[in-house]
Specification:
By secondary structure, the chain is mainly beta. The chain has helices at 2-16, 18-32, 196-200; strands at 40-43, 52-60, 66-72, 75-82, 86-91, 101-106, 114-122, 125-132, 134-139, 144-151, 171-180, 183-187, 191-193, 203-205, 209-212, 220-224, 229-238, 241-248, 253-257, 264-266.
Length: 267
Amino acid sequence: MKKIIVLIVLAVVIFFNYDKIDEIFFQMNLSQNHLNYDEKYFFDLNGDGEREEIKLESYKDKQDNFIVNLYINNKLQEKYEDENNISVHIYDFNKMDNKKEIYVILGDKLENSKINIFTYCNKNKKYNFKTNGRIINNDDKNGTMKITYGTTDDSANYNHYSKVIGGEPIFINYVYKRKLDCDFINIDKKEAQVVGISKENKYIVKDETIVYETNVGDVKAYTLLKGDKIKLVSLYNYDGNQCIKVVNEQGRYGWIKIEEKQIFEKK
């Protein structure tokens, strides 16, 4: 009986922590595929049966920034630059497209990281995909990537939401992309949580604005007056319904329907 209870508890723990466990395994796999500077590596990047020579050249510029040059077959392909740190890995994000990618992480803090994914098709065709955030999970059976601390600029579903706060990108919990051959396909999710500095910032209401109880329907919760202060909570975009969840200084939550214009300005 005790054994059954332990198994049930273990199953429940795994179920509610599945994403975190998956993230840990991804990080472990990534660390095993780390590439060192000034060493030569040989991998078949484009699936043609021949291995390409890969070398990373590192140095600091006059401004003390880190620079990493990526060479493939003795030819400079990309130059990466960051103030603090650059980490490079070889990885296979989609086992179905018969290619391996070079994954470059810029920055040493999760909340301000940027990533590059370099795909080498042949000597005349390559692609360097760039985005904010950090990959924390990858389904290599279909190429789906889960990126944390991306911004609205990186999401096709929310890239116009930055207009609401005057053009500044909003950090969100997850952006999803799919790697297929040399292309990166957007995977839209109908809701995203606001995170990081975007969640901490206070914004001032520019004009009187109605706040609704839910993200669907027209039941009014309260009205924000010009000069009121709010914080952003989450974004929603589904079936033509576009809105932002906010919380005012009294702790009242609600949803604002957005248009292609600025509603708030940073305090």
